[in-house]
Amino acid sequence: MAKLMTEQRFASPDDVYQLLIDSHRDLTPDQSTRLNAKLILLLANHIGDAEVLAEALRVARQGVE
Amino acid sequence: MHATFSYPKYSFTPSEEQRTGTVRRHPVVVIGAGPVGLTAALDFARKGVPVVVLDAEDTVSVGSRAVCYAKRALEVWDRLGVGQRMIDKGVVWKIGKVFNGDRMVYQFDLLPEPDHKIPAFINLQQYYLEDFLVTEARKSELIDLRWLSRVISAKQEADHVVLQVETPDGVHAVEADWVIACDGAKSSVRKMLGLEFQGEVFKDRFLIADVVMKADFPAERWFWFDPPFHRKQSALLHMQPDNVWRLDFQLGWDADPEEEKKPERVIPRVQAMLGADTPFELEWVSVYTFQCRRLERFRHGRILFAGDSAHQVSPFGARGANSGVPDADNLVWKLALVLDGKAPDSLLDSYSDERVTAAKENILNSTRSTDFITPKSEMSRVFRDAVLELAVDQPFARSLVNSGRLSTPTTYTDSPLNTPDSDAFAGRMVPGAPATDAPVERDGHAGWLMEALDGRFTVLYAAAGDEMGGPVPAEVAEALDGLAAGPLPLAWHAVTERRRGIAGELVDSAGRLRERYDLTPGSVYLIRPDQHIAARWRRFDADALSAALNRATGR
């Protein structure tokens, strides 16, 4: 069974975090929401595994409600 | 409004039982002469079962209503002798295109493989379809069509049902061993029985405008999200016979249905779509909302529900009539066997099980399409719009675009009537699957496998080579002839590569049948009267075949 990888995987974590933040620069909250939705769809397809996605969604939802 | 069709008026003739004040017991009464009820009646007549059909009205469907008829429903009608007339009159199509704004983002082909008798889809106004079915039903002495006959109560007794029927001549009682309620989404029989119809109601409204015009759009399904002529909503275009075009506009929940039906509201919408200089006339206008709901079970004692009375879906995907017709197809052979004493009435529970499975599948697909077309939350709309935006350049996103997943037949994977495979087979013809077609030659004429699956159980035997004792070994032929002469309606056919002179042989010279059923010499398929696969083996075994027949008939 495919498993969601949660250990640190980036060579340079700070660069990746900055990439995410910078991509939203100058966007309105609505535009950012659109960007995020497209990003999620692109990454979900890249992962290509519904089980991993389901696990990621489960973890992401923790503490939200 | 313009009329391309003149509605027939069927006259009321009091039945003998009403005139003479006697109460008769009929084996089967079908309530509702719509596509599903008429299909059931034709199938009963084919099987030699007399049937009374009661309908509250005296004409066919008013308005084009259901327009898209799928391959599987057409195959059922073809078996009943009316499919070709529908195909000849209808607009045959298989390509769907989806646009976002004015850009095409997705295209699908519903029948990508060649060599099938029946097309993927036709478009035909429901009134034509019902007219053809009524015309066919009137040819049969076994079908007693009673118009202006409204069922006002239904009472189940231990071994029959008593219906009170209101006609222009008053109310009288009709008794039936079995009742099939095909009385539509607003089924009064369902209400009489107090049955819950559970599911979702969607908060959106759609306008249907059927227009008559000369246009050169292709015979394809075109669906728009956010088109330039109808911003922020969806629209649909479909060709029908007689230069009638189905236009469908999403209006939103706040639209006033009475206002939106007025020509002064409809005509500007149509002009925006077609261009101000395209002449057209309105034929039929309707504003609808929709639901995805079903009964928990389709059998209630001696009353069986079929079609919209049992399950209702949104129109996206053409899964209404196209799932009602297979209900009739599934039910009639079972009930005919029960009436004939050849199967226990528990076989009818499998009708409910199998068709509830199909209804769940249809409701799931229909609900998903509706969630895409009418997003229920802000985030649902954000994802929908993101999919549409990505679909322009990103191939993966195109498969997520959901403007309706069009009706395909259900495979009864978990049906207790199936005999699970004991041998390995490749391909789609698993037990429970609807049989797929292939070209074959019969009696020297080009024909189709589906024509050989004629409403009886059918055994296909893939002829073996001479090393196995000739194309059909004598003991195999003897066993199959024995079954064909037995109590169950059954026929068998040898499948040969070239003409071998065997009675009933299906000559598979193109090899499509062998390919689609993964046949090897000696392979055997048992196919049900409704053309679903019941069992298959690599080698003939008379005992296994008998056991599979028992299983498929609930014995």
TrEMBL record, chain A:
Name the Pfam families on file. DUF2783
Protein name (database record): DUF2783 domain-containing protein
Q: Which organism is it from?
A: Azospirillum lipoferum (strain 4B)
From TrEMBL, chain B:
Q: Where is the FAD-binding domain?
A: 27-363
**What's the domain of life for this entry?**
Bacteria
* GO function terms (MF aspect): FAD binding; oxidoreductase activity, acting on paired donors, with incorporation or reduction of molecular oxygen, NAD(P)H as one donor, and incorporation of one atom of oxygen
Cross-referenced Pfam families, in alphabetical order? Answer: FAD_binding_3
Transmembrane recorded as keyword: no
Keyword DNA repair recorded: no
Required co-factors:
FAD
Keywords for the protein's UniProt record, in alphabetical order:
FAD, Flavoprotein
This chain's protein is named: 3-(3-hydroxy-phenyl)propionate hydroxylase
- What is the native source organism of this protein? Azospirillum oryzae
